[in-house]
Amino acid sequence: MEAGMVTPAPALVRFSGIQKTYDGEHLVVKNLDLDIRKGEFITLLGPSGSGKTTTLMMLAGFEVPTHGEIYLADRPIKTMPPHKRDIGMVFQNYALFPHLTIAENIAFPLSVRKTSKADVQERVAAALRMIKMENLAHRRPGQLSGGQQQRVALARALVFNPQLVLMDEPLGALDKRLREQMQLEIKQLHETMGITIVYVTHDQSEALTMSDRIAVFNDGIVQQIDKPDALYEHPVNSFVAHFIGENNVLAGTVETVDKDYCRVALTGGGAVTARAVNVSGAGASTALSVRPERIAIVTDDSSSDGPNRLPARVQNTIYLGDHALAVLDVAGNGEFMVKLQPGAHGSLRHGKSVFITFRPEDCLALDPV
Ligand SMILES: Nc1ncnc2c1ncn2[C@@H]1O[C@H](COP(=O)(O)OP(=O)(O)OP(=O)(O)O)[C@@H](O)[C@H]1O
Ligand SMILES: [Mg+2]
Fold it and tell me: What Pfam families does its record include (predicted)?
């Protein structure tokens, strides 16, 4: 759609042809078209410097797009100041006011909005109940743990019932356990309150846990926007396949293409059949992607010969409690990972010769890396 054509959209937020440069030369957001639906939990996921925070800051109103327009509930907002946008925000470093109590911190957005005193009291009490911190209302931020401070930041972002809440790495400063607990709490708040959340992280497991949809960023370009399972099962290119979940890569050349499948000669020897996801045709270089849990190790020579059976040599095995990993040498890839049942790794000694098998549908032929 053209940026100038304001047609009503079901989206709460629409980025239309958005570009951003800070120095007038290098585009850090290259050409962003993204619709965010009302009530959705959408995550911007990508490596450091890929443009996630910049995108969020343009939506919040702290950065102005160089080109394009952003619509909030169908209104162009490029020139609207941040405080008029009705957007709540939570950042990594909490940014609570150290000299104010917890209750005063949470009340702050309401006092800016000139809410009546009785209303403020009621809403702050409800917000404190929501984060289960009623008994800590009179403490100051310095007297709270990291997780408690992050809860207060959350309450402060939600207390004025914004239609949209932006969160930029809100759990980045917390340890793993607390982070996982807070992920579930935020998810629950999202479900009970029906708000729209735009969440930024570079942690793919966090994105998979929390999101309705994930936009995968790389170098200022959205590579793919999809539901978590679709990103994992149907990555459109090697970048997404590598960024989401564990992944084995085998380099090769496409020999033949037959509808959705292709036959690939591996650079390190052997040939396999793969889904032709992102290859231009016969003769093209490709990177095959196979997930560690979609591979079987066969030690018995006499077992049946499928289309994808490759000789492998055991490097070592890693015991991880609920599962184990075998590290193999396969077609020149010396770090080829296969996920095993716990206990199944006992017989796989270093140097042992085995075969691996996997289904053609579990092997994706993607752009070369
Ligand atoms: N205020 C600024 N002035 C100049 N360049 C900036 C500014 N803010 C960000 N950049 C540059 O823009 C690019 C994108 O930065 P951005 O902060 O959006 O990345 P990010 O995806 O949020 O990364 P991270 O995961 O590290 O937070 C980077 O190359 C960064 O150096
Ligand atoms: Mg950032």
Answer: ABC_tran, TOBE_2
Question: Which of these CATH numbers, 2.40.50.100, 3.30.565.10, 3.30.70.1050, 2.60.120.260, describes 246-366?
Answer: 2.40.50.100
**Mean pLDDT in runs of 10 for the chain (369 residues)?**
52 96 96 95 96 96 96 92 89 83 94 88 91 92 89 90 92 83 89 92 93 96 96 96 95 97 96 96 97 92 77 94 94 95 83 95 96
Tell me which residue has its CA closest to atom 27 in ligand 1: 48
Of all atoms in ligand 1, which is nearest to the CA of residue 23?
A: 4
DSSP readout, 313-330? EEEEEEE-SS-EEEEEEE
Q: How far is the CA of 202 from the centre of ligand 2 (A)?
A: 8
d(CA 237, CA 135): 50
Q: Classify domain 11-238 by CATH architecture.
A: 3-Layer(aba) Sandwich (3.40)
Structural domain spans, the chain: 11-238, 246-366
Give me ligand 1 centre to Cα 29, in Å.
10
Per the confidence metrics, is the pTM higher than 0.85? yes
* Residue bearing the CA closest to ligand 1, atom 9: 54
Q: Which two tokens stand for residue 72?
A: 């909030």
Q: How far is the CA of 53 from the centre of ligand 1 (A)?
A: 7
